[in-house]
Amino acid sequence: MATQVETNLSSISTLTCSKCGLEHDYDVQQRVSTCCAMPLLAQYDFSSPFSKNDLQNREATMWRYHEVLPVLDEKYKVSMGEGFTPILELKNLAHAYGFENLILKDEGQNPTGSFKARGLSMAISKALELGSEGCIIPTAGNAGVAMAAYCAKANLPAIVVMPRHTPKAFKEECYWYGAEIHLIDGLIHDCAAQVRNLNHEGHLLDVSTLKEPYRLEGKKTMGYEIAEQLQWHLPDVILYPAGGGTGLIGIWKAFQEMIALGWLKKNVKLPRMVAVQAQNCRPLVDTYLGIHANSQNYNGSPTIANGLAVPRPLGEPLMLQVLELSGGTAISITEEEMLEGVREMARKEGLFIAPEGAAVWMAARKLLTQGWLQPQEQVLILNTGSGQKYMENIEGRYLS
Ligand SMILES: *Cc1c(COP(=O)(O)O)cnc(C)c1O
Ligand SMILES: [Zn+2]
């Protein structure tokens, strides 16, 4: 049955395998690539007109970039105002530590309190557009909450599988959105195994990180926003708390797309991208340092930064590519350092950030001390979530 499609909403042209480039149709729901079982990347027709001027007067959400987003028909858009979060100057911390230009993009101000809202808004919109019966997700917390919320709005059944040790606020919020919740002893890859059991017939869309192509498209909008909000002058360095890595991969993808659109010069100096992980679970750091060849058999421990407890990220090769192409690095932060970061950001800047964001701040401090960052460089910290749901991870620690 032919449906009326607003043809200029999206200029998506195909999906390609991130490993071998094989094309996949975008008019059916895809998972990983059929050739290599690796993430699929959405491609767009950049010859169709889309200019910076078109952005004027558009809504202050990630949907202002709809030409380079995959949703074809406005009526499937499931949105609660995600994206276009503020970039804040951290003058007090900059002054205390000798940064001249320290800024923070506050993703804690998204719906459901984290940047997961971007990816899940996009993935659930596409699930709706492509006729999914429901969605299922293994999660460390924030992604499950966001999926449950967007599924509620889209009127789709939702199943969330998360570690038993996840803070209560994440479980409660999923429950109130009406999701079915399963608790697992283990980390997110153990939850993924349970998702495969629960969905062995494949009726539900598994929206695991990078196992469908569209969460990445939501996350990449951070890259477009960073460029637009900084008047098309990119920062020297961006620090990102890497779990599955969609933000790191997505921001880099956005930079490439903006070069293709002519919004950034071909010879533009792109930011050095830094992946920050928890000392308790640092698969990418160990691969980056050559401690192991890859993280396929890595075993991590839980961390108060739940979103960083991803021992075997499917997107590792793509993350390593971003670190290499950008001249970036990878670094890990201890639990105690994260607490110090939460405390400092709260006391000096009035921001109650997630431990993941605190890890990123502490990484900036370390890299400045080590001379990897120069004082005059513009350094952008991504705070990926609000601290409010992590209370039992951090409560009482101030007494010690
Ligand atoms: C999920 C999450 C991360 C890691 O994001 P990836 O896309 O998996 O790299 C970082 N911070 C917070 C708060 C998260 O919820
Ligand atoms: Zn392939």
UniProtKB/TrEMBL annotation:
<dbReference type="InterPro" id="IPR001926">
    <property type="entry name" value="TrpB-like_PALP"/>
</dbReference>
<dbReference type="GO" id="GO:0009097">
    <property type="term" value="P:isoleucine biosynthetic process"/>
</dbReference>
<dbReference type="GO" id="GO:0006567">
    <property type="term" value="P:L-threonine catabolic process"/>
</dbReference>
<dbReference type="Pfam" id="PF00291">
    <property type="entry name" value="PALP"/>
</dbReference>
<dbReference type="GO" id="GO:0004795">
    <property type="term" value="F:threonine synthase activity"/>
</dbReference>
<protein>
    <submittedName>
        <fullName>Threonine synthase</fullName>
        <ecNumber>4.2.3.1</ecNumber>
    </submittedName>
</protein>
<dbReference type="InterPro" id="IPR000634">
    <property type="entry name" value="Ser/Thr_deHydtase_PyrdxlP-BS"/>
</dbReference>
<dbReference type="GO" id="GO:0003941">
    <property type="term" value="F:L-serine ammonia-lyase activity"/>
</dbReference>
<feature type="domain" description="Tryptophan synthase beta chain-like PALP">
    <location>
        <begin position="78"/>
        <end position="385"/>
    </location>
</feature>
<keyword id="KW-0456">Lyase</keyword>
<dbReference type="InterPro" id="IPR050147">
    <property type="entry name" value="Ser/Thr_Dehydratase"/>
</dbReference>
<keyword id="KW-0663">Pyridoxal phosphate</keyword>
<dbReference type="GO" id="GO:0004794">
    <property type="term" value="F:threonine deaminase activity"/>
</dbReference>
<dbReference type="InterPro" id="IPR036052">
    <property type="entry name" value="TrpB-like_PALP_sf"/>
</dbReference>
<dbReference type="GO" id="GO:0006565">
    <property type="term" value="P:L-serine catabolic process"/>
</dbReference>
<dbReference type="GO" id="GO:0030170">
    <property type="term" value="F:pyridoxal phosphate binding"/>
</dbReference>
